[in-house]
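Good morning N.,

You mentioned wanting to compare the apo and holo forms, so I went ahead and generated the holo version with BIS(adenosine)-5'-tetraphosphate. This is what I fed in:
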Amino acid sequence: TRAFDSEKVKVVFVLGGPGAGKGTQCKRLVEDFGFCHLSAGDLLRAEQNRPGSEYGQLIRDCIKEGSLVPVEVTITLLKNAMSDALKENREGSGESWKDGKGLFLVDGFPREMDQAERFEKQLRPLATVLCTPSIVLYFTTTEEVMLFRLLERGKTSGREDDNEESIKKRFRTYKEQTMPVIEHYGKVGKVAEIDSSASVEEVHKRASEGLKKVLS
Ligand code: B4P
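and this is what came out, ligand included:
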């Protein structure tokens, strides 16, 4: 049996600068609440490594350059992942959903206004209420902290974008393309800003409280 009504599914966007801790916090929130976590970065990396993908090289180049992967590619991957998760719910397998309510944590998306607009239009057929976020969780810290964390991760991650040159470009992309998205949702009162300079545990506490408030 399905766990929830697909028409009542909710979406929370998770944004913040590179290395602000989006992925780290999403993992913790999934452990606690059982949300369905979809990371744009993870979806792109999986597609990049999929044998035979026509986008592999394009994705690799964009990630290394710290630029955004073309919107068509990102939207298609996200739409497929959401559609698969909703299908799981309809069929009653529901591995991606443990919260019983149907909440998508969409991490690292939308990273530019065009993505936000297309999300509304192109995902409408999946579920009508899904198309606007209930809230945007916005993790903030300084560039020094983000740079330090990413360089630390770079020592073992093998990620081609965890080096100083790529990180500087990612900061620029974030300021020019993603900040307008945060301002856009801020104007309609949908942004919950969380200082992510503290420890993973402390930030997690703040994020959980912020989420509970809006979702209760
Ligand atoms: P992402 O994969 O989204 O990665 P990110 O912004 O670097 O990381 P995140 O904020 O999740 O950091 P994390 O928790 O891992 O994007 C990578 C690239 O993919 C983009 O540059 C772009 O090219 C492409 N892309 C992604 N989304 C796209 C989209 N929508 N459209 C087009 N292109 C897109 O934390 C980083 C490190 O800090 C970890 O090592 C972690 O352990 C550590 N850390 C986290 N929180 C900490 C804390 N509180 N204290 C100490 N350390 C902490």
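The longest helix spans residues 164-187.

Happy to go through it together on a call whenever suits you.

Best,
F.
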